[in-house]
């Protein structure tokens, strides 16, 4: 019980210190990747190799992800403005940098403007904004982001930029679309939930381990000389007593055996550090590698227990992001599932903090035992004092076996969860566009809702009507069902809008066009399919003298009451924000609901994580009770 209380106190201290020192905030919530890392075809002023990611966002602030420094600059092929952000000294990513390009001109007036110097900023400060785009270098608004792990300002960025941005809490799945720009330097902070701050606990644990390993190494270096001197003194004492007790008659063989023994102990003292690292720690590695095969990544989780904690946090993050995306109405309506998720989440995080601390303590015990054992080794040269090193070496051996057991159990845990993901289960979160503009959250497979609203605005028609038609034509009257259908039953109807060939329409400029000529890729390109469908609807609306209800019927081909009423029902759900009718009945894609099935799946997943954590905490201690004792020296 006392040990548990000590662990809890350490956990609270680490939590308080890490959240304040290692707080991490996503630069922005996220968005779809519109251009990936690597070679690409040259379009509008773009280079043929892309050293970062382009994230499709607009009217969005860029925030400092942590305390650090920012430099504002122009030119370099990064649009109207770009910034370089360096992580500060007291962060997990000290001196690493991010480059944000293709930003709005407003960015040049933030944080003191174009001073040409690095300016200190705090975590969460606004450091830039995406607002519109430069058609000379891009096809649409976006943020170009490069990751430089060595802190460079320009040049080739790391290919791991996507993984790094995800570690900061950004959602790059395409299900989240950031939008919070209001034309000034002020912003709405939204729900103050930042699970990434918990990563700081793991980093604190790792820092503590690194420091203690350093202390143990220094302790060995400091003690080594004294241990060697003690060995010589004890040897001399042994020889003197032996000579006296033998009546000053000592045979040559006895003397030689004593000298050989002295040589062995001098070797042990001089190489004790290597023995501890090579034999004892090597044994742990050998057992772990044999257990896991060539891909023994979990060995990192034993020597760096913060990784195991961070894996657990990352696995739970999607559920918390889902809850964080809710408004007050959604939060209240889902309170019955939200509370169990919160309780389970913090229970899992709490127990994995204990696991990380337990592994840390076992590792420190090993290093401290190894460092202190050197001062006891010289006593092994005397028969009457060898019990002293026997106890210490026995304790070191016990620590080694315990770490070996932990490495196997950590291996089981890592293997069990390495391919597990709950992202898909909680992927549909309420987007910022819905909160600020009323546009429904896009849960379709290809970002079709955003395309529909963009193209409808270009054509000057009501986007809710077009979305309602698309839901009925290809989505089964749901948003998440909208997709690019092939030739439906041989009728020739294609895609999101079920566009038929050979039709006429009115384009965004009000000109009469032939669909097959104006939008030749409508059968395979979703955006062209949407444009073709809107052009056809616009011509039907013109034919119906602006009567939307008749135009909906004409779009179908005839004034069929059932078709029109179903589309109008979709329209009513969109404009009335009736979310129960906009998404699939299963609820897995409904951004406003957490279903009982999702809750049960999440509960099962958390129970498995807790069981694995308890194995790591309990099994080594139980087994070591039966393996305790000292090692007898000859």
Quickly list its features.
634 residues; alpha+beta; Glucose Permease (Domain IIA); Lysozyme; 3 domains; seven-stranded antiparallel sheet; two-stranded antiparallel sheet; 18 helices; elongated; disordered C terminus
Question: What is the topology?
Answer:
Layout: H1 2-21, E1 33-35, E2 38-39, E3 49-50, E4 53-55, E5 60-63, E6 68-73, E7 81-87, E8 97-103, E9 119-121, E10 126-130, E11 143-148, H2 161-167, H3 199-245, H4 252-270, H5 272-292, H6 298-303, H7 306-324, H8 328-333, H9 335-376, H10 387-417, H11 432-437, H12 448-459, H13 463-474, E12 504-506, E13 512-514, H14 515-518, H15 526-543, H16 548-556, H17 561-575, H18 596-627
Antiparallel strand pairs: 1-4, 2-3, 4-11, 5-10, 6-7, 6-9, 7-8, 8-11, 12-13
Characterise the protein shown here.
It is elongated, with a radius of gyration of 33 Å. The longest helix has 47 residues. With 634 residues, it is of the alpha+beta class. Helices cover 51% and strands 9% of the residues. Helix 9 packs parallel to helix 18, helix 15 crosses helix 16 and helix 16 crosses helix 17. It starts with a helix and ends in a 7-residue tail after the last helix.
């Amino acid at each position: 019980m006392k040990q548990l209380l000590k662990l809890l106190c350490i956990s609270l201290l680490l939590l308080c210190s890490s959240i304040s020192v290692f707080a991490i905030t996503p630069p922005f919530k996220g968005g779809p990747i519109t251009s990936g890392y690597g070679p690409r075809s040259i379009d509008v002023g773009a280079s043929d190799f892309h050293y970062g990611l382009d994230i499709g966002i607009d009217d969005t602030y860029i925030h400092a992800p942590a305390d650090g420094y920012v430099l504002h600059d122009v030119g370099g092929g990064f649009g109207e403005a770009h910034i370089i952000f360096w992580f500060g000294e007291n962060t997990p990513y000290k001196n690493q940098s991010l480059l944000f390009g293709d930003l709005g001109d407003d960015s040049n007036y933030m944080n003191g403007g174009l001073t040409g110097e690095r300016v200190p900023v705090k975590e969460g400060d606004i450091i830039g904004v995406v607002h519109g785009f430069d058609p000379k270098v891009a096809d649409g608004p976006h943020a170009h982001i490069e990751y430089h792990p060595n802190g460079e300002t320009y040049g080739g960025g790391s290919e791991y930029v996507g993984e790094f941005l995800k570690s900061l809490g950004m959602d790059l799945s395409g299900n989240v679309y950031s939008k919070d720009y209001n034309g000034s330097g002020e912003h709405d902070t939204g729900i103050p939930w930042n699970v990434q701050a918990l990563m700081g606990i793991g980093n604190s644990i790792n820092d503590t381990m690194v420091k203690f390993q350093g202390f143990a190494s220094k302790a060995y270096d400091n003690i080594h000389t004294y241990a060697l001197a003690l060995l010589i003194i004890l040897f001399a004492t042994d020889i003197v007593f032996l000579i006296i007790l033998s009546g000053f008659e000592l045979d040559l063989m006895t003397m030689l055996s004593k000298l050989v023994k002295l040589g062995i102990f001098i070797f042990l003292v001089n190489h004790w550090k290597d023995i501890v690292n090579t034999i004892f720690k090597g044994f742990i590695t050998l057992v772990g590698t044999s257990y896991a095969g060539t891909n023994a990544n979990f060995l990192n989780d034993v020597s760096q227990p913060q990784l195991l904690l961070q894996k657990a946090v990352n696995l739970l993050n999607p559920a918390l992001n889902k809850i964080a995306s809710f408004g007050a109405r959604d939060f209240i309506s889902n309170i019955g599932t939200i509370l169990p998720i919160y309780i389970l989440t913090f229970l899992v995080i709490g127990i994995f903090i204990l696991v990380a601390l337990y592994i840390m303590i076992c590792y420190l015990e090993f290093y401290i035992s190894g460092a202190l054992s050197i001062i006891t080794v010289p006593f092994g040269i005397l028969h009457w004092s060898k019990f002293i090193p026997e106890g210490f070496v026995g304790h070191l051996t016990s620590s080694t076996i315990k770490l070996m057991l932990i490495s196997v159990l950590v291996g089981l845990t890592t293997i069990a969860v390495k391919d597990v993901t709950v992202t898909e289960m909680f992927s549909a979160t309420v987007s910022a566009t819905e909160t600020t503009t009323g546009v429904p959250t896009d849960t379709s497979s290809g970002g079709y809702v955003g395309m529909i609203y963009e193209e409808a605005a270009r054509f000057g028609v009501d986007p809710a009507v077009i979305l309602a038609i698309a839901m009925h034509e290809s989505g089964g009257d749901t948003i998440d069902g909208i997709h690019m259908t092939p030739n439906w039953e041989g009728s020739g109807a294609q895609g999101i809008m079920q566009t038929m060939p050979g039709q006429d329409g009115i384009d965004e400029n009000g000109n009469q066009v032939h669909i097959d000529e104006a939008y030749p890729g409508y059968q395979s390109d979703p955006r062209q399919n949407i444009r073709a469908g809107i052009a056809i609807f616009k011509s039907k609306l013109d034919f119906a003298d602006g009567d939307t209800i008749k135009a909906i019927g004409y779009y179908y081909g005839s004034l069929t009451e059932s078709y029109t009423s179903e589309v109008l029902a979709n329209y009513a759900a969109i404009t009335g924000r009736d979310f129960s009718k906009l998404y699939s009945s299963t609820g897995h894609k409904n951004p406003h609901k957490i279903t009982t099935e999702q809750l049960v799946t999440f509960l099962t997943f958390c129970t498995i994580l807790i069981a694995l954590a308890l194995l790591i905490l309990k099994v080594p201690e139980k087994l070591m009770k039966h393996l305790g004792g000292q090692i007898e020296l000859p």
